[in-house]
TrEMBL record:
Protein name as it appears in the record: SF3 helicase domain-containing protein
Listed transmembrane segments: none
Domain SF3 helicase positions: 182-339
Keyword line: ATP-binding, Hydrolase, Nucleotide-binding
An example Gene Ontology molecular-function term: ATP binding
Keyword Glycosyltransferase among UniProt keywords: no
Keyword Hydrolase recorded: yes
Taxonomic superkingdom: Bacteria
NCBIfam families named in the record: primase_Cterm
Length: 466
């Protein structure tokens, strides 16, 4: 009987063997054949492959998992579960082995293996004050040199551009000089300080001036230099609000806090602001988390059309404030003279110039202050008068045709200032400031004697007609 079977040729057998061998070679290490001949997923091996493709770590005392950016040279925060689930899904779908259970189990395995149970380092303990990362290396503030990226440094802030250590940011400096004159020196020192993860100068910066003078544009430019992930945006009045206990959490591990157009209202709680600028320990509290102590290095940068009134008692309080006036009105002519796209292109070289300016300030122990800055600050401190505080804390409005004599009120004001350790204004300056708060300065007859009074102003535990 003749057989219908055909004996395969040597060539066909070779192709089959080759195909089989290729399939074996292409099969991922995490796929295996069980005793029943079925292809299964080895979850620990799949997790291992994912971990080999990216450096990931979870520290017990860190607020978030970390992943090392090979391009940026720093450890960035990320969602380890979502990242792992995405990678596992891609690999499993390609192999035709996806299931929700396998994805979840793989993510769990990665999380467990990345968790450093015995390592109780906090971000504050791994922070390197004098080193900052750019795409082309790590700048060392001590040596002034650029060194290669190194994951062992555990740097947490990246800047997505190459630091350009040669050349000059001509267009940027001309733009700033036209905006603020000699105050550009301080602004460059301040910007450079943002890259330094410490608080060597206990200062807070406010860009001041009427609208349409470039304040917001400058703040946006500083934001571009630092990167959105490295800044927070909390208003000055939010820090001073005793009822907002979560405000300080926003500056956690940030290089700067940048906020435009702060409120001009009176702020009576400045202890947190002093702590944020003073290299002091502050209490950080996240929602549903236990509060903890932390030293902030975020430089506080604000802008204001009208400077606020603050409760400041000493020279130590007032010296923290650096007021930078922007007196130039932005006209069409000004806009045509300054190409902001060219200014943006100069960020890599301008960042380096700012860093070097800051290093010089660090060496001498203080930042610059232009004559105009000192002038505007002096005017502000005089306006930021303790008179307003005195009236709010010691006086009230009675609503009747009554009021203390101006002589008596002024004597109480002098006592208040002496107790608070602050400068006493002359009576001539004191009177119009009281009037500004809504009290009429009127001359009335009492006991046959005509006397000047503040209508409606009463003081606790005193007869309003004394």
């Amino acid at each position: 009987m003749e057989s219908n079977s055909t004996v395969p040729s040597n060539e066909a057998v070779g192709e089959l063997v080759s195909g089989f061998t290729t399939t074996i070679k292409e099969r991922p290490q995490w796929l295996y054949i069980d005793v029943n001949g079925k292809e299964k997923v080895n979850i620990p091996e799949l997790a291992k492959e994912i971990m080999q493709e990216a450096r990931m770590v979870v520290y017990p005392n860190f607020p978030y998992p970390l992943q090392y950016s090979e391009k940026g040279g720093y450890w960035k925060s990320f969602d380890i579960d979502k990242y792992t689930e995405k990678k596992a899904t891609e690999k499993l779908q390609q192999a035709g082995k996806w299931s929700n259970r396998t994805v979840k189990d793989t993510a769990y395995n990665v999380g467990i293996n990345c968790y450093q149970a015995g390592n109780h380092l906090t971000p504050a303990e791994v922070m390197k004050t004098d080193k900052v990362v750019f795409n082309n290396g790590v700048y060392d503030f001590t040596t002034g040199q650029l060194m290669p990226h190194d994951p062992e440094l555990m740097l947490l802030h990246g800047h997505d551009y190459n630091l350009k250590m040669q050349g000059e940011a001509v267009k940027t400096k001309q733009w700033l000089a036209d905006l603020m004159g000699e105050s550009i020196t301080y602004i460059m020192e301040m910007i450079g300080s943002c890259f330094y993860h410490g608080m060597p100068f206990q200062e807070l910066t406010i860009l001041s001036g009427d609208g349409s003078n470039g304040k917001s544009t400058l703040l946006n430019h500083i934001t571009s230099m630092l990167g959105m992930t490295n800044i927070s945006s909390v208003a000055l009045e939010q820090f001073a609000d005793k009822n907002n206990r979560f405000a300080t959490s926003q500056v956690y591990l940030k290089e700067a806090n940048i906020f435009a157009d702060i409120d001009s209202k009176y702020l009576d709680k400045v202890s947190v602001i002093k702590a944020l600028t003073g290299d002091d320990t502050i209490l950080i509290e996240f929602k549903n988390k236990n509060p903890f102590s932390y030293k902030s290095f975020a430089k506080l940068i604000f802008s204001a059309n009208e400077l606020p009134s603050l409760k400041m008692n000493t020279h130590g309080d007032t010296r923290r404030f650096k007021i930078v006036p922007l007196d130039t009105k932005i006209t069409q002519e000004f806009i045509s003279q300054h190409d902001l796209k060219a200014v943006e292109r100069e960020i890599p070289s301008f960042a380096y110039e700012c860093i070097e300016m800051f290093r010089k300030a660090l060496e001498r122990g203080y930042t610059s202050e232009s004559k105009r800055m000192a002038e505007v600050k002096g005017e502000w401190l005089e306006r930021n008068s303790p008179v307003e505080r005195f009236l709010k804390e010691e006086c009230s409005f009675d609503g009747k045709d009554a009021g203390h004599s101006a002589t008596y009120v002024y004597s109480r004001y002098r006592t208040y200032c002496m107790n608070e350790g602050i400068k006493v204004l002359s009576k001539q300056k004191f009177i119009p400031l009281v009037e500004k708060q809504g009290y009429s300065y009127v001359r009335t007859m009492k006991n046959g004697k005509r006397e000047w009074r503040f209508k409606g102003l009463v003081m606790e535990e005193n007869d309003p007609y004394s």
